[in-house]
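Researcher: Next sequence.
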Amino acid sequence: MLLRTTVRERCESCHKAPTDSLHRQITGNCKQCHSQERWKPATFDHDKLFLLDSDHNTACVTCHTNNDYSRYTCYGCHEHRADKVRAEHLEEGIRDFENCVECHRSASEEPEKKGSREGRERD
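Model: Next structure:
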């Protein structure tokens, strides 16, 4: 890279920020979705991880806090309590329940069945 490290992290110092409805919600940190080698296509496709359908078509900050799009929370809307979520999942024999979108990938309350998403098997 020809750019100094301090400049590499600040795309907006040289580039005009996009003004579409998605990008207006995000401040800085372009590398969370884009690479420096190629701007398009973005390296992130929300539909592959979690469909923004039905009640989940909301502002980014509802699920992603502190401008960190590498993490999310479902507690921005859902009135779950950690102890209740734990008990319900353990009752079903589910021991790995920290990453909600591993099973709940859309507005459906029910988790997806094995192999139901584009032929991919779910663990």
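Model: Residues 114-123 have pLDDT under 50 and may be disordered. The chain has three helices and no strands.
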